TrEMBL record:
Signal peptide extent: none
Source species, domain of life: Bacteria
Domain Nucleotidyl transferase: 2-235
Protein name: Sugar phosphate nucleotidyltransferase
Gene3D superfamilies assigned to the protein according to its UniProt record, in alphabetical order: Hexapeptide repeat proteins, Spore Coat Polysaccharide Biosynthesis Protein SpsA, Chain A
Length: 330
């Protein structure tokens, strides 16, 4: 079975980190967002992947080649940011029209029974109840969780069941036909073609049956605060990674410290992810994500995200720093 993973978004809510690094490659609980998704799919029997890339797409390609050298995959480039529906439409030549496909958005980390989803007799949409559904695609449900209608970011929602970004499609050919119908219409004010519109076309015009399946947990990777919260939650369940013992270091679990790190005279944790080959001295770090090849000296960091190759020296702050940055807080 094939999976389509759109990772072409610019990740504007996580800037400046995403100026130089795709959101899908931000480290989280010892992995990246993308590797969490790919590993979950591989473990459940998905054997081929189609990645829709765009902004900084070459970094996605390099990452996949380096970390999944035997992965059967292809890459499709979305040059224009015209939404998820447009991204999926670009994959038509890479997908077998007579086989089901699973679509997982590249920033969607969820806890759910994936094997059960992949063996479903009908198409499925992943949902979770939210307090304010106006910023989501929303699924309206009938008896036995049958999806009766889907709407993209409704002003007056008739349901609080948000679509989380996981779709199992059995009627693959019909999905692409529905996408072509959507593309023939005037583009929305947002300038994008939502996948939601094609799903609604499948339900209303083609009478395709969609059932909703409920997500156990939906990890939000869209903003700094929620990304840090997700990192803390996933660290509780991840296998703990530790750098080799350093001098005068106190580790407060859970933490994930990648290989090649040099840490001394510091306190690390709880809820800290540190990328590889990072150097930390005379510092206290908690509830933070630190990229690879960074250098931190004489700092007290909390609730912070530090990019790759960043240099920070100095005071106590809450920071959101992109790659290749030098900060001196003294």
């Amino acid at each position: 079975m094939k999976a389509i993973i759109p990772v072409a978004g610019a990740g504007t809510k996580l800037r400046p980190l995403t100026y130089t690094q795709p959101k899908a490659l931000i480290p989280i609980a010892g992995k990246t967002i993308l590797s969490v998704i790919v590993d979950q799919l591989l473990e459940s029997g998905v054997n081929e992947f189609v990645f829709v890339i765009g902004y900084l797409g070459e970094k996605i390609q390099d990452y996949v080649a380096s970390n999944y050298p035997n992965l059967k995959c292809s890459f499709v480039t979305q040059n224009d940011r015209k939404g998820i529906g447009h991204a999926i439409g670009l994959t038509r030549a890479n997908i077998d029209m007579d086989e089901p496909v699973i679509i997982v958005l590249g920033d969607t980390i969820c806890d759910y029974d994936l094997k059960k989803v992949l063996t479903s007799d009908v198409s499925l949409i992943g949902v979770q109840k939210v307090d304010d559904p106006r910023n989501f695609g929303v699924a309206e449900l009938g008896p036995e969780d049958r999806v009766t209608r889907v709407v993209e970011k409704p002003l007056i929602p008739k349901s609080n069941m948000a679509m989380v970004g996981i779709y199992f499609i059995r009627e693959t050919r019909i999905m692409f036909e529905a996408l072509e119908t959507v593309f023939s219409r005037p583009v929305a004010k947002s300038g994008e073609f939502p996948l939601t519109d094609a799903l609604e076309e499948m339900i209303a015009h083609y009478k395709v049956r969609f059932d909703a399946f409920r997500i156990n947990t939906w990890f939000d990777c869209g903003k700094k605060e929620t990304l840090l919260s997700t990192n803390a939650t996933l660290l509780k369940y991840a296998a703990q990674q530790r750098a080799e013992e350093q001098s005068d270091v106190v580790i407060i679990p859970p933490v994930s410290i990648a290989k090649g790190c040099k840490i001394r005279n510091s306190i690390i944790g709880p809820n800290v992810t540190i990328g590889e080959a990072t150097k930390i001295e005379f510092s206290i770090i908690k509830n933070s994500i630190i990229g690879s090849y960074a250098e931190l000296e004489d700092v007290l960091l909390h609730g912070s995200i530090i990019g790759n190759d960043a240099f920070v020296r100095g005071s106590s702050q809450s920071l959101n720093i992109g790659d290749n940055t030098e900060i001196d807080l003294r």
